[in-house]
User: Fold these one by one.
Assistant:
Number 1:
Amino acid sequence: KLSSLVEAMRQAAAGLLKGMDWQVVAPSNDESSTGSLEFYRQVFLFFREATHNIARHAAATQVRIEADWQPNCFHLCIQDNGCGFDVDAISAGNGLANLRHRAEVLRGTLQIISAPGKGTRISLEADVS
């Protein structure tokens, strides 16, 4: 169930985002929507990579995580108020490459919006399969 995926994200956020003001916003009344085990795995690993990057690099104090889904479409948005970065200038490390790879595996759309001093917004939209 996608509601179980969101609960797993909440638990991971509690461990990864210690010392930050964070919140997860998601539908609370939908217990029927489901995705494949591989979908669940890839989205969760995407989420862990994104929140790990925030914890390690962003110097953020606030993080907002939004998950939403329609019958065939899943949307995840992770936004922080951290230091931000120049998306085009980052080449070291595997964090952004891992996010891009997971989005490709999900046949989804990844959008990363960031700028130095402006925080970061990472958005994933993928078919639920």
Number 2:
Amino acid sequence: QRTDIFRIERFIKSPLGKRILAAEHIFKEVPFTIELPSTMLYPELSDSICAKDGIILQGIIDCYFEEPKGIILVDYKTDYVAPGDGLDITRDRYKTQIDYYAYALEQITGKKVIEKYIYLFWNGQVLEY
């Protein structure tokens, strides 16, 4: 889905966009592959023989940047978000993804993810987790 120049400009001028531009270290489109404990996805396996098995998770982190206190994770979405409860539905839809991305970043960098955001290009809103 294409994002027009107006929406990109609105993002750059937003408080989150300004923070990204001011950061000394910015990382974009970062692919990762990590192994998660199987019990992280399936807690019911904790008493089984599979408890020590791992599950491979792959993804691409849209953006993260560093500030003195830690890492700020930003994911972008171009989905249409319906007025009303659309923000809550969208927040719920991507919560698991953003949590796993934060976990992956902490494993890869050894640094703490202190803030997690999804920026919605459709309406310029920021979802904070």
Number 3:
Amino acid sequence: MTENISVDKNKSDEEIYLQILPQIKSLINSDEPIISNLSNVTAALKEAFNKISWVGFYLLKDDELYLGPFQGKIACTIIKVGSGVCGKSALKKETIIVEKVDEFPGHIACDAGSKSEIVIPLLKNKKLFGVLDLDSYNYSSFNQIDKKYLEKICVLLTEELDLEKFILT
């Protein structure tokens, strides 16, 4: 079966999110492996937005975030909770928007070309399962619109998928 995403990239970011949100929801299938669902979400986001240079999940095991499904250049494989933007988002259990990554204390530069970033925690009942990380080669690429809709996507994932069953070995 072929899956496609339909998006008009000439629209505003909010209009693009409104186009892809129901499409992403239809891609999420609790009968399929979690890894497959996360992979399709990263592909859909990367396909929808030209501003995204990298998008992926880091999944929590013990006190570290491990690289999960992603779209983009090769990435860091392990990030300690509390380190870098992803680690800080995981520690605080809140979304972090960074307009200029060079100015973020302790930023981890997996791709030296990255200029801005947004990281959204994957939470269910206040329990952290990982983070969704998006990077851009442009400064100030992410804002409150991105935060609003990316958080909705993360809620969809945590509501539809039984992340408790997903174990990194």
